[in-house]
């Protein structure tokens, strides 16, 4: 009697078989739908927002075709045209100084005065001796004239005439010696006034007024440097000698510019004056001397300057900025942007480089757009976006450098 209700309860808890299958398929469909939705969601940013799939922003420069100046850079030293150490040729007391230190003086300008008194005394003594001998000479010549008259009258012997003639000649020699002594005394007196032998700028004085100075002292009285014009001496490698000599033999003036230590300011421009007669075997270089007018005193003796020598002008050269040139396993190349705004690789044969520009011998025709910035993300056939043309800015930079 009790077992029948229990069997009825078990049957009510058991689900039909069709219901279980339906639930299982619903779960599978929901999982598949969620996976598809997630996959599509993950693909959308890659296709629409990936930076690598977009065109590469680049700056380009048009290939230049103009005259290219080939420059040789060196370090030079400014040298005065003339350097004179003013020395006294006589000993004496320094009486007066007529210049100021650092003053620009002209040739022949009075610089110092040495006490002339001792030399005036010596001149007076020499002149007195000269006058004494002149009086003796006049007396001897008068006696000779009488002797010659008496000899014609046959009143005296020839020997007396000849003796008197010898005395006259002797006195003439003494008078000449006296004249030389007078001239020497005048010369010594003139040395007491010292004049500038050249025009230029004087340095610091080495003696003060009242000092006793000696003749030809090593220290001298003052130095004078001629700075108008002025020289700059520098050295170039010997392999540039033929190029430089060819230009000079044609009568061309080879331009040289002097720049400050930072190479930001051009101080002066000049021309090659001469080059040394031998190459330094220790360094393999040749010394060059250039002349600068230096009217504004921009160059100062013993100053160190950076030198740019315009050794050669390449007419109508195809050239691009050196920064645009890349080096790879196959050689040097550049990226260009074609008419479809896609990148292409051009292999190059290079010529001379100067002032940030490089001559292109082969590889470019002169009408291409060369990539200057943005090269890192480029590859052959990659689409590019030109964000700025660097032609204008580069041209202004070249003008400033020139």
TrEMBL record:
It comes from the Bacteria. GO terms for cellular component: efflux pump complex; plasma membrane. Residues 123-192 form the Multidrug resistance protein MdtA-like alpha-helical hairpin domain. Residues 123-188 form a coiled coil. InterPro entries: MdtA-like_b-barrel (IPR058626), MdtA-like_BSH (IPR058625), MdtA-like_HH (IPR058624), RND_pump_MFP (IPR006143), YknX-like_C (IPR058637). Its main location: membrane. The keyword Transit peptide does not apply. The chain crosses the membrane at residues 21-39. Signal peptide: none annotated. Keywords: Cell inner membrane, Cell membrane, Coiled coil, Membrane, Transmembrane, Transmembrane helix. GO terms for molecular function: efflux transmembrane transporter activity. PANTHER family: MULTIDRUG RESISTANCE PROTEIN MDTA. This is Putative RND transporter, membrane fusion protein. It comes from Acinetobacter baylyi (strain ATCC 33305 / BD413 / ADP1).
